[in-house]
From TrEMBL:
Organism: Erythroxylum novogranatense
Molecular function terms from GO: acyltransferase activity, transferring groups other than amino-acyl groups
Protein known as: Phenolic glucoside malonyltransferase 1-like
Keywords recorded for this protein, A-Z: Acyltransferase, Transferase
Presence of keyword Transit peptide: no
Tagged with keyword Acyltransferase: yes
InterPro entries cross-referenced by the UniProt entry: CAT-like_dom_sf (IPR023213), Plant_metabolite_acyltrans (IPR051504)
Length: 470
């Protein structure tokens, strides 16, 4: 496989436009500072175009992507800026100044497009050439980096590397959808396109109320992490991103799907186990009705169980399961759905591995624990949030299962004018070990699951996953 970088260009927001001519700054909220040194989030979108030749790619695809990106950045000015921490500021801020740009790499590859965009097992390293690096230092970090790669006669991919302190998953997909919308309109020669209200970012940070002073809590916690755990005694204000936290070594990537019938069968299995538990009056974690039996809960529970069994985890090992939840609608007052920035919190629970892997009731017991964590969000979306960061850095690597992405983002709707993506991957799970979730690509209501495991674990997981649904 050979991948060649053709150019690295700097795309400015709406060249010479009035909007891009003024300095712009945006403070981080406590939701942002919770994440500001965790590994960046990488997504890659594969688009199949069998007639894609080098001339069409360089004369049509790349110019339209550049032009539409420039127009999109007019609405998303923070992405063209930089994250910094001025000495006179109590917290990091995003600063945009005229002539700031976003890096867009353009590449060509002779790699096997069909294989890379399939659900088959592949070395995690095989997708690395298509992911741009996100510049990050002790003093400054870029919000986003982009790369478009052509596969002649097959298609192209767009990769997005985004800083988690600046964008959560909903904000990232909002940007991608806005870029795709504008690009598609430009291909129809509708210039300049008008961005629909639902795709325009809401940038007002005053809607986030820090009643509990969590901003100060998180900044102090990150300073302690830098001092005691990361060996950065001299710079408690360090902004450098941590590239690996729970990353396994020598992993392969694979994709699995649960269709609507699979999810229905899992739901029926949980209800059957719960009925048996009640009859036996088994000592099990209690949950008051209603129990959450959503696709998210069932997918996370079933996938976690198969993962731990595939890894042949010791039953006495204490396993932490964590997920992030969008709290835009849970805050009082609610925050607009198109709020740009982080508006997510995390929930964890811990249990011995044997609880997950129990043959008779493991699925139901895991579902109950995830359901209870969701109910904690309903009672108070910010309750216990101050404990999340210290816990994150004290869990032993390999003992934590987390979730990336969401079926709610509708990533397969991102059409730049050349059709829906053939495949969308969250590639950063090979650095975090997380379970990647999205809606199924066929649009029929299923769930797509991305994993990064060692090869023998992947083989075992595949067997367990299929047999468990039979």
């Amino acid at each position: 496989m050979s991948t060649q970088i053709l150019e690295v260009c700097q795309v400015a927001p709406g060249d010479k436009s009035p909007e891009s001519a003024a300095e712009f700054s945006l403070p981080l909220t406590f939701f942002d500072t919770l994440w500001f040194q965790v590994p960046p989030v990488e997504r890659i979108f594969f688009y199949q175009i069998t007639e894609l030749n080098p001339a069409y790619f360089t004369s049509i695809v790349v110019p339209k992507l550049k032009q539409s990106l420039s127009q999109t950045l007019l609405h998303f000015l923070p992405l063209a800026g930089r994250l910094t921490w001025p000495t006179d500021s109590p917290k990091p801020i995003i600063i945009y100044t005229p002539n700031d740009t976003v890096s867009l790499s353009v590449a060509e590859s002779n790699a096997d497009f069909d294989f890379l965009s399939s659900n088959g097992v592949k070395e995690a390293a095989e997708l690395r050439p298509f992911i741009p690096q996100l510049p990050s230092s002790d003093t400054v970090s870029s919000p986003i980096a982009l790369q478009v790669t052509a596969f002649p006669d097959k298609g192209f991919c767009i990769a997005v590397n985004s800083h988690h302190a600046i964008l959560d998953g909903r904000s990232t997909t909002l940007f991608i959808k806005a870029w795709a919308y504008i690009c598609k309109q430009l291909l129809k020669e509708q210039n300049p396109p008008i961005l629909p209200p639902e795709l325009a970012p809401f940038l007002d940070r005053t809607v986030i109320k820090d009643v509990a002073r969590l901003q100060t809590v998180f900044l102090n916690q990150w300073a302690e992490v830098n001092r005691s755990m990361l060996g950065n005694e001299s710079n408690p204000r360090c902004l450098k991103l941590r590239q690996n936290i729970f990353a396994p070594q020598n992993v392969v990537r694979s994709t699995f799907q649960l269709n609507r019938d699979d999810i229905k069968r899992l739901r029926e299995k949980v209800l059957s186990q719960l009925e048996a538990i009640n009859k036996e009056e088994t000592d099990v974690v209690k949950s008051t009705p209603p129990i959450h039996l959503s696709s998210f809960v069932l997918t996370c529970a079933y996938t976690s169980i198969c993962m731990l069994k595939a890894r042949q985890e010791d039953g006495n090992t204490r396993i932490y399961f964590g997920f992030t939840a969008d709290v835009r609608k849970r805050l009082d007052p609610p925050v607009p759905n198109n709020y740009f920035g982080n508006c997510v919190t995390g929930k964890f629970f811990a249990a011995e591995a044997t609880i997950f892997m129990e043959e008779n009731y493991g699925l139901a017991k895991t579902v109950l624990r995830i359901s209870n964590a969701i109910k904690e969000l309903e009672r108070g979306p910010l309750d216990g949030m101050e404990k999340m960061l210290p816990l994150f850095f004290t869990i032993k690597p390999g003992n934590c299962i987390t979730v990336a992405g969401s079926t709610q983002f509708q990533v397969y709707s991102c059409d730049f004018g050349w059709g829906r993506p053939k495949k969308v991957d969250i590639t950063s799970i090979d650095k975090t070990g997380a379970i990647a979730l999205s809606e199924a690509s066929d649009g029929l209501g299923g769930v797509e699951i991305g994993l990064a495991l060692k090869r023998h674990e992947t083989e075992a997981f595949t067997s367990l996953f299929v047999k468990g649904l039979a």
